[in-house]
Amino acid sequence: MSKDLPSQNKNGVSIVLCGQAGMGIQTVEHLLTKIFKLAGYNVFSTKEYMSRIRGGTNSTEIRISAYPVRAFLDRIDILVPLNKGAVQHVGKRVSSETIILAEKENLGDDFDHHRCNCIDVPFTRIAAEIGDKVYSNTVAVGAITGLFAIEREMIDGCIRQFFAAKADEVTKKNIQAAGAGHKIGTDLANSQKLRLDISSDSAVQNQILLRGAEAVALGAIAGGCNFISAYPMSPATSVLVFLAKHAEDFGIIAEQAEDEIAAMNMAVGAWYAGARAMVSTSGGGFALMTEGLSLAAMLETPIVIHLGQRPGPATGLPTRTEQADLELALYAGHGEFPRIILAPGKLEDAFYLTARAFNLADKYQVPVFILTDQYFLDSYYNIVPFDLSDVQVKKHLIETRKDYKRYELTADGISPRGIPGFGKGLVVVDSDEHDTQGHITEDLDIRTKMVDKRLKKAESIADDIIPPELVGPDDYKTLIVCWGSTYNVVTEAVKNLARSDVSFLHFRQVYPLHGKTADYLRSSEKIIIVENNATSQFAKLIKLHTGIDIDNKILKYNGLSFTVEELTESLSKVLD
Amino acid sequence: MDTQVFDMGDVDIAWCPGCGNFPILRILKQALTEVQIEPTNLVLVSGIGQAAKIPHYFRTNVFNGLHGRALPPATAIKAANPALTVIAQSGDGDMYGEGGNHFLHTIRRNPDITNIVHNNMVYGLTKGQASPTSQIGFKTPVQVNGVFLEPFNPLAVAVALDAGFVARAFAGHVEQTKDILKKAITYKGYALVDIFQPCVSFNKLNTHQWFEENCYYLEDSHDPSDRNRAFRKAIETGKLPLGIFYINSKKHSFEENIGTFKKDERPLYERELNTERLHALIEKFKTAG
Q1: Do B62 and A270 touch (CB under 8 A)?
Q2: Which of A154, A272, A422, A446 best tests the B interface by mutation, with the highest count of B CBs <10 A?
Q3: Range of the domain at B136
Q4: For the residues A43-62, what does the mean pLDDT come to?
Q5: Does residue A127 surpass a pLDDT of 80?
Q6: Based on the domain organization, do A339 and A245 belong to the same domain?
Q7: Is the predicted pLDDT of residue A3 greater than 80, yes or no?
Q8: How far apart, in Å, are the Cα atoms of A49 and each of A83, A437, A559, B22?
Q9: Can you tell me the ipTM of this complex?
Q10: CA-to-CA distance for B173 and B162, rounded, in angstroms?
Q11: Taking 60 as the threshold, does the pLDDT of residue A2 lie above it?
Q12: A426 → closest Cβ in B39, B78, B279
């Protein structure tokens, strides 16, 4: 059997690892992505997993390419199933072109069933010979990297780094396991059973490899975040974990609250006292925060909310993805008040937008959302390192004078923000309607003035709206509209279409909408909305603000992100 | 210092004549004056209810937040700027009912704040329903056959959670209450002061007279470092003890434990981002991540 795997003129190689939770797929993913990136390949990885600690079936896709690839692909070129049932789990994605590197004993009937594509690699037996079955994953890492003729030195270096905290013996055995696997991979490549033809790019070596959650957390640090209070909830926990890990280095207070209500109220209190605080949660947790969101609005205390979406209602699919909490973010909180909602599409967005969120929240004294989702937070790829000269912590605090009034009426509705203990004044804030001093009032004329003042801030906020990004020709006939995490998959699908009359418009600020939105839509003969939800929430928002209906909807809400192929196909159908 | 520094002057006070909140307002001003806390250095945090309006009659920094939610922002305010004196103050419904979970976990967290709870065993602002501390048999328009839920015992809960400072006072006793408050404010860590007070409008059972007759002060021989004894005193029925039940002088406060201020005493607002360190952290993603 001889197979030519897709080379760089397509879109690289797609490797899928599949097995039970607790089998170490994440370790394999971590090592492989690092090794490939260091070897100068463009890497993308994404995972889908069940809400359990052991068992079940999870899979991770790793794409290796000569060019940047950043989206979930249906096609599997190399499948590494680690247990019985794994092949079935990825079922429809296995084609006659898929090579399965598997252990015959582990796969049982599945092996015979897919015989023509299976290459028996005795991962476990080799691992056992080295000393423990536990090393079988590292044998797989070695085999896969061997196929790409990656040098042993690079692999061993990554293994050393990964197992640095473990005993020397563990590192030694893992290096031995990788070596044994590497030999199998190399032999396979040499035997012409598998031919991989992907060139590497030394520029990639100087890039950074990270995932959405890390980009959000790094952006928060860059925005001057020094306080995070959160209650663990997938998929948003990883932002709390990252900031807690680096808390000491950056003087961050990272507190796990007793519930999301406390988390939100803490963050509001922290801003009141001069911190730059954020919360990180998912839909259900955010539902508990909405009371505190309304508090922030009334106190005109800045707040940054990272809302990592997952499918609902209620507990929904805890470890899956969806873009169905846009309307929640948009309408959450009782009463009327301005807010800003940012939705990163790329890792760069996650970093720069999160940093910007802190400045915007501080400048306008309003809630600012970073709306991500599980797919975005858990997907890795390589990018050019963030440029810190593009970010700046802009504090909007004043030293108070003796006669300071927290809610002094101003032309733009923004009252200079003082904090207790900085200056000679007193800072009074109240969740009740309040006078300019901040004290409780039931004077209904003051009430009207205060509502007007709070809403007036929207006019200044409008000057700071990030315009949508148009990708493709200006004289498009068809315009695809998308927001947030679908940026990369839409990019690749549109590229596949290879049409000169199709462009896409991506919104990384979804509220308030940019004034040019309607112009972009009106210039198109056909508009298609792409959303990872069931009711096209963004299309509804567009309709509300522009009066324009978007009739062509491509929606997905089974808990997974769009794949490149399915989106390409869906778009083709609408275009024909 | 003079207590007048805390006076608001001519303000319209929303309390009923004869309300137990009036003496607490006066006593707290006196206590703060005697321990020399400047209005600019103090933050009064409250929730919602009649007791929670107290910061509006106080010339100082105020965070009047949501019902039941005074403790989380109070914790965060102290953590963001430990130089501030922070008092979280509200009624029994606010702190023990709506905010019950925060009450438990704030004790565990042990921020250096004082938690004053006006305990009149009834909901005043919503006109007379039972509160978590209402006594068995107390009839209200909602609890029409009388309360049958076991009253919440804040002191026993606080001692059980090894709270740093646990005390109970009575609003009718100025000197004793002031003394307890001064000790609570200067205690380094979480200090609970539950203050009995009559509600003249909605609690005809637990009146000023009732508290006078049904309370007594802990004996001079009471050792507040003895947690078992403090617990026994906290669960006493019949006559209710007043005074300082328990002090744990060995605890570290939340602000000490988080470590943020170990090497750098500056409050968060005075600090700047360490850009070099962030740059180095980003660089790490080239190899390790």
Answers
A1: no
A2: A272
A3: 3-259
A4: 88
A5: yes
A6: yes
A7: no
A8: 15, 52, 11, 59
A9: 0.98
A10: 27
A11: no
A12: B39
